[in-house]
Amino acid sequence: MVKVGIVGGTGYTGVELLRLLAQHPEVKLTAITSRKEAGTPVADMYPNLRGRVDLAFCTPDDARLTDCDVVFFATPHGVAMAQARELLAAGVRVIDLAADFRLKDTATFEKWYGMPHSCPDILKEAVYGLPEINRDKIKSARVIGLPGCYPTSVQLGYAPLFAGGRKLVDPKHLIADAKSGASGAGRKGETSLILAETADNFKAYGVKGHRHHPEIKQGLEAIAGYDVDLTFVPHLLPTIRGIHSTLYATILPEARDTDFQALFETYYAGEPFVDVLPTGSMPETRWVRASNYVRMAVHRPNDGDTLVILVVEDNLVKGASGQGVQCMNLMFGLPENMGLTHIPVLP
User: Fold this and answer.
1) Does the active-site annotation cover 149?
2) Where's the active site on this chain (predicted)?
3) To 10 degrees, what angle do helices 212-224 and 149-162 make?
């Protein structure tokens, strides 16, 4: 059994981790921390876990995290890097759902997250936790920086076009038009996220620049092996869960005869959580709700030079906690899909 601790379990990604790990046949939940809620039974805060999780929240000092095999950080940015060194010294592996170990350039991290990086040496060894791209590295990693929810959908949507240095589309004029449900902002009280502001409404944000842009760029360039750039515009959907990314790319003249449907199907053949849909499909966010699946469709409107890739995922599962469990399975030699084969919830 893998002994698991969770730091910061009161948010949406924390409760998703608990939901997934409580059903995992090879996991023993040993600690979950919250300074504010210390002493409160987890099931009192999240009644959906009644009868499945009998832990109470405790302070980090009382959690004995160094006795765990792996610790998940479902915390604000900056927390994981403050505790990672002690855990690693005790032989504990670290999976961070925040941004502490995503961006390899510390100056870029400091620009977008407004804090100095306290352990650049650990950042250097951290592995970006996108299994479809970094599966072998994840298996031997001590530290995982999980991708953001938007970057997961965008990178997986574009990856087949760039893998192995392919040059099929213009790498400098990519457009990612992405939308997320309100849970992507976390469990917090902000006027912009209350029901009266989000319901019956739809809006863009971060158009001048968003912290996920450098992460997406870094990831695509690692896949391609050459410079890539894109316009990334996120939007807030009037829903709780789900991401829908509409990705655009201009096909290069020498690639006009490419069968892109076959390219995507071949690239993702055998992947347990990426489903390339039949030609002409229009994926919906509810097709993946509460699941670890990504579903995508490839379109070429009017047989022209524009490629459109539609990608849907659940931002709290494949976009966060489920992907973390997927990485954990790889790190401990377990079947990659263990504890993650839930059928999406519909309607």
Assistant:
1) yes
2) 149
3) 20
What pLDDT score does 61 carry?
Answer: 85
Query: Given 58, 68, 119, 149, which residue is catalytic?
Result: 149
> Which residues face 101 on adjacent strands?
none
Task: Give the whole-angstrom CA distance, residue 23 versus residue 44.
Answer: 19
Q: Are strands 306-313 and 294-299 parallel, antiparallel or unpaired?
A: antiparallel
Cα atoms found within 13 Å of the Cα of residue 42, Cβ hemisphere only: 29
Local confidence band at 60 (pLDDT 50, 70, 90 cut-offs): confident
Which pTM value belongs to this model?
A: 0.96
Q: Count CB neighbours of 122 within 10 A.
A: 19
Tokens of 118: 């306290």
CATH no. for residue 181?
Answer: 3.30.360.10
Three-class DSSP category at 323: helix
- Does residue 76 sit in the same domain as residue 38? yes
Q: How many CB atoms lie within 10 A of CB 267?
A: 19
Residue where a domain terminates, one of 125, 160, 183: 125
Supply the range of the domain harboring residue 102.
2-125
> What is the distance between the terminal CA atoms of the chain, rounded to a whole angstrom?
35
For helices 260-267 and 149-162, the axis angle rounded to 10 degrees is 120
